[in-house]
Write a structure and sequence with these properties.
- By secondary structure, the protein is α/β, with parallel strands linked by helices.
- The chain has a single domain, classed as Pyruvate Kinase, Chain: A, domain 1 (3-Layer(aba) Sandwich), CATH 3.40.1380.
- The protein contains 5 helices and 5 strands.
Length: 284
Amino acid sequence: MANIRDIKTRIDSIKNTKQITNAMKMVAAAKLRRSQDGIIQARPYANHINSMLRQIRARNRDIEHEVMQDSKDKTRTALIVVTSDKGLCGAFNSNIIKKAKEYIADNPETDVICLGRKGYDAIKKISSNIINKYINLFNEMDFSISKQVGEFVMNLFLSEGYGKIDVIYNEFKSAIQQDIVVKQLLPIIPEELDADKFNGSFECEPDEETLVAELANKYIDVELWRIMLESSAAEQGARMTAMDSATENAAELIDELSLSYNRIRQAGITKEIIEISSGAAAIN
């Protein structure tokens, strides 16, 4: 049985851990609110660009831009894996990594682009096809990062012979729920819009092909930015939940150890009283 000093040391250590986990929970909650604000702004923008592409396609079915075509000749595939740079966020990273490993197992020739250190550290152990990585990008979320990734991805698709680029990420639903999403990023397949039901009348300047090309670039940049915000919010929600659970577990453990501490202390005091009483009785 542990002595009273060991138990007191453990209680002090767990109290310090509880303070840390509670502080991390509060920081995660603050970051979650900021990420949610970003998602609210990014989601409609990406949806409106997709809507414009739908309307142009509905009006002119003859548009043959590369970013909107499934090419049978291009067989190379790339996968973007979005994880966090840090741990202590429950199963947030492990679920994504598991899904990515399944994808790679089914498509062994897939090239991988890692967004986030955790995904890179895990996937480099099973695949030698990592063609690019972006780490330490979630500390200071910046739209310029998504533009940088977007330019790289568009170059792969248009110039490097890639016929399909998918992305795996955690989509934010709530602080306690994140859904793993596997989505085709390129080629862009806008939702179909029935031309008979489309009554819009507008003119394109300079022309529809140029407009589609510009919208496609903007769509990829904004969609990647939205995905990064979704992943960041999901990460902070998972971390907040994990740290809240850790704080509660620490409190329960402190209560249990305090009870053991008091029992041992009480037993020691009782033993001392008995020894004093026995000594006094022997003297008398």
